[in-house]
């Protein structure tokens, strides 16, 4: 347990990946995208809104598979890149709509169940992949 977050389902995820064999990385990639899209949807609901540019900039990039690893990057920026980090990190700001730490809090809220969700996603992706 790190930073008050309890991670559950790691064993289930390992079992799912072993069963997946050569399809493990594509299946895990698909599951990670689905999981990150859930985080992003929650983060967008929490994003402070002035004109909506920051909220609209939230994105999940396609997965990068290299060797035995998969990376999925999500974040806010684009047209709001000049101020996205400032809005996210400024705990003293008063936001009539939304909150600071909008992406971090959404991620931490799901973190405890991610391995289990990823394992289920790997099984589901295997069915779709063949």
Shape: elongated
Total domain modules = 1
Mean pLDDT: 88
Label the structural class: mainly alpha
Low-confidence stretches: none
Cα-to-Cα separation, first versus last residue = 36 Å
Evaluate the radius of gyration: 16 Å
Strand content: 5-15%
List SSEs in N-to-C order: HHHEEEEHHH
Number of strands: 4
Largest sheet, if any? 2 strands, antiparallel
How are the strands of the largest sheet arranged? 1-4
Number of contiguous helices: 6
Helix content: 40-55%
Would you kindly provide a written description of the structure presented here, covering whatever features stand out?
This protein is mainly alpha-helical and 130 residues long. The protein has one domain. 54% of the residues lie in helices and 8% in strands. The chain contains six helices and four strands. A two-stranded antiparallel sheet has the order 1-4. A two-stranded antiparallel sheet has the order 2-3. Helix 1 packs across helix 2. The model has no long low-confidence stretch (mean pLDDT 88).
